């Protein structure tokens, strides 16, 4: 079976698409474009002749942001895999924690140092490519090492494998979603009326209002993401509030249908999210029962 060549496919796409003109509008393909298409030998080629090209973001801030986010995810994935292997009895050969003078040096320390070094050099020297991208990747690695122990600097206690340690996974998920949204170009004014002050003010009021409602319903992560992607906070604002949220305490009466539905849905969502947390970060260690005195 043959395949349409990439060149031929591109020309056929041009036929069905509009072409932007210099004024920023759109028009149909011009006569010169159609003549060029007609002069092409549009045939089929074998699969071996096909080529696939993946384009990364261009240099500058866009590429630096992409590398930062990628390095962040890779470093988090590696360090979380490492800690899970250290915990497993099946791989006793895996290196253990870093200790000096009897003190366990958390990888959070290395992450903070890397963040400081990369940030200081970037602000002080403001280098061009490729050092900009290298510093961005180093900053991302530091972020991954640091946020992996977010629960430690929140509780000021080593709760990595405790129930409270789940907050580290929450922080990484939230940072990934916000970073990904920024990299994809989502902003509150995307596609809105930015030609007037009234239009901008209206968009911002609606955007912030939806995020506030989502937060009042106990959906804080969706509220934050919704600031960049308003449809997310819109869905969160429409759906039932979480039990115990300010909205539920104020508007859902004890024994009422809405509160019962909210509790049932909240429990299902909590159990589903906990399963994903365990897949990403590993399940917390079981709590040992305390001996009675």
Summarize the model shown.
The chain is mostly helical. It is 60% helix and 5% strand. It is built from twelve helices and six strands.
Detail the topology: elements first, then pairings.
Layout: E1 3-4, H1 6-16, E2 19-20, E3 26-27, H2 31-38, E4 44-45, H3 61-87, E5 98-100, E6 103-105, H4 107-125, H5 131-147, H6 150-155, H7 166-183, H8 197-216, H9 220-228, H10 230-238, H11 246-251, H12 257-281
Antiparallel strand pairs: 1-4, 2-3, 5-6
Intertermini distance: 78 Å
Number of helices: 12
Low-confidence stretches: 1-38, 40-50
Shape: flat
Radius of gyration (Å):
26 Å
Number of DSSP strands? Answer: 6
Round the mean pLDDT to the nearest integer and report it. Answer: 80
Share in helix: 55-70%
Features:
two-stranded antiparallel sheet; 293 residues; flat
What does this protein structure show overall?
The chain has 293 residues and is mainly α. It folds into three domains: 3-49, no CATH class; 61-183, no CATH class; 197-281, no CATH class. The chain contains twelve helices and six strands. The strands form three sheets. Strands 1-4 form a two-stranded antiparallel ribbon. Strands 2-3 form a two-stranded antiparallel ribbon. A two-stranded antiparallel sheet has the order 5-6. It starts with a strand and ends in a 12-residue tail after the last helix.
